[in-house]
Design brief:
CATH architecture of the largest domain: 3-Layer(aba) Sandwich
Oligomer: single chain
Distance between the termini: 24 Å
CATH superfamily of the largest domain: P-loop containing nucleotide triphosphate hydrolases
Shape: globular
Strand order of the largest sheet: 4-2-6-1-7-8-9
Radius of gyration: 17 Å
Number of domains: 2
Number of strands: 9
Helix content: 25-40%
CATH class of the largest domain: Alpha Beta
Structural class: alpha/beta
């Protein structure tokens, strides 16, 4: 892969930390990595945004934030309220394509979920993924509610002809309850794609070296990590549903 789309089932599910984790592993392996943030909302000029989080955790990464809106709203709505120009799927795809000529891996992080409107024409991250022909990684919650949200995201992606590479749980609790344990079994079923990792809650607060180690533990070999879902599930309390995954 050279371009990868990182989307979420919702906002605040851990997309930026997952993006940083993928980038950190790729940088550690000697790859040239770029991250495109299509639209940053809820952050004013001069304040740190998601791309700053990525560089603080992943190190030598090229970042490009295409548009910034002060209101914490969907990009289309935030653009209308601010009077700042919309960002379009074509612009996002063009930025990714340009960076792809000089980098080994380009990560495109969306805002919110796959169908969140970027512009007043209804363009979304799904359109970006389709135009680039890039695989999609869905970042999901661990607990209750995640199955429906993940199923909806995966279904619309598939209907639009996108390739869902897998699901990453953006924040795995230190003491998972029954719902989280059972969801490890059910997420790949509802998504029609494997669980490609889970990141421990709070790893975004770690120093870069510790963050890299946690990323390698939490992401699968598909990203260059060591996460094995079957071995991980075997170490969890018995859910009563048999062997997960």
């Amino acid at each position: 892969m050279s371009v990868l789309i990182v989307t979420g089932t919702d906002t605040e599910v851990g997309k930026t930390v997952v993006t940083a984790a993928i980038a950190a592993i790729a940088v550690e392996h000697g790859h040239r990595v770029a991250v495109v943030k299509a639209a940053q909302t809820g952050v004013r000029d001069g304040e740190p945004g998601d791309v700053d989080v990525v560089t603080s955790l992943a190190g030598e990464v090229t970042v490009r934030e295409l548009r910034r809106y002060p209101d914490p709203l969907a990009p289309d709505t935030a653009a209308r309220r601010s009077g700042i120009e919309h960002v379009t799927p074509a612009e996002v795809a063009e930025a990714a394509t340009d960076l792809n000529t000089s980098h080994d891996l380009v990560l495109v992080e969306g805002a919110g979920g796959l169908l969140v409107r970027l512009d007043d024409k209804g363009g979304s991250l799904a359109d970006v993924a389709w135009s680039l022909g890039a695989p999609v990684v869905i970042v999901a919650r661990a607990g209750l509610g995640t199955l429906n949200a993940t199923a909806l995201t995966a279904e619309v992606a598939t209907r639009r002809g996108l390739n869902v590479a897998g699901v990453v749980i953006g924040s795995w609790p230190a003491e998972p309850a029954l719902a989280e344990i059972c969801n490890l079994t059910d997420l790949p079923v509802v998504a029609g794609a494997p669980v490609l990792g889970l990141l421990d809650e709070g790893i975004g607060e770690l120093a870069p070296g510790a963050f890299l180690a946690a990323a390698e533990r939490g992401l699968s070999p598909w990203f260059g990590g060591r996460f094995d879902p079957e071995l991980f599930a075997a170490g969890l309390p018995d859910s009563g549903l048999g062997s997960p995954l």
